[in-house]
Q: What sequence folds into this?
């Protein structure tokens, strides 16, 4: 039995099963709730995909259904900030801010969308962590190939013990990701989206 557990005196560290990728679903809902009360220039789709771990199959069919102009994949970012792991083997830490995925086995993100994300995080005073994944890929690896290409970026919540029966994350990373994504979506008007295309 793996029950949701609030840890640490700060009450900001959570332990539960299957944060991968229930946390992505929770982020999606939280961002949609934020946007419901704000004026913005977009139609926003929140999609919960299936079979990411075995070929990003749900992301492919979802891209066909939505035909997006921009895509953010919201997921966990596996980390090893635990005793015994040298610093040069894991730079990300829980509580260190959202992680943007610099590359995985299926994609290098759109440079301009990555830049917009970094700039927006700086404006908001949100710390970002840079992550890579060389043993798998996020849903963006499928979506960025849709049609003539979709500017895409994966953002992960740094999470310990991702594929075990209990994983650990920090609530502040979650809240900062919601603030960051909400602010980026508010900026994505027609001209900004058009400017994300490669020159």
A:
């Amino acid at each position: 039995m793996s029950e949701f557990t609030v840890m640490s005196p700060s009450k900001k560290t959570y332990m539960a099963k299957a944060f991968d990728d229930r946390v992505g679903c929770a982020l999606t809902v939280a961002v949609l709730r934020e946007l419901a009360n704000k004026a913005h220039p977009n139609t926003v789709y929140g999609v919960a995909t299936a079979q990411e771990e075995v070929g990003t199959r749900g992301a492919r069919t979802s891209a066909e259904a939505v035909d997006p102009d921009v895509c953010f994949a919201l997921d966990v970012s596996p980390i090893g900030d635990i005793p015994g792991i040298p610093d040069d083997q894991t730079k990300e830490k829980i509580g260190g801010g959202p992680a943007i995925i610099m590359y995985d086995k299926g994609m290098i993100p759109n440079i301009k969308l990555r830049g917009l994300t970094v700039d927006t995080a700086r404006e908001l005073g949100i710390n970002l962590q840079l992550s890579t994944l060389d043993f798998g890929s996020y849903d963006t690896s499928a979506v960025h190939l849709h049609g003539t290409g979709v500017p895409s970026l994966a953002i992960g919540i740094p999470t310990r013990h991702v594929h075990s029966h209990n994983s650990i994350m920090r609530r502040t990373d979650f809240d900062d990701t919601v603030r960051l994504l909400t602010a980026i979506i508010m900026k994505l008007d027609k001209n900004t989206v058009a400017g994300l295309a490669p020159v």
About this structure: Strands lie at 5-7, 13-16, 71-79, 99-104, 129-133, 152-160, 167-170.
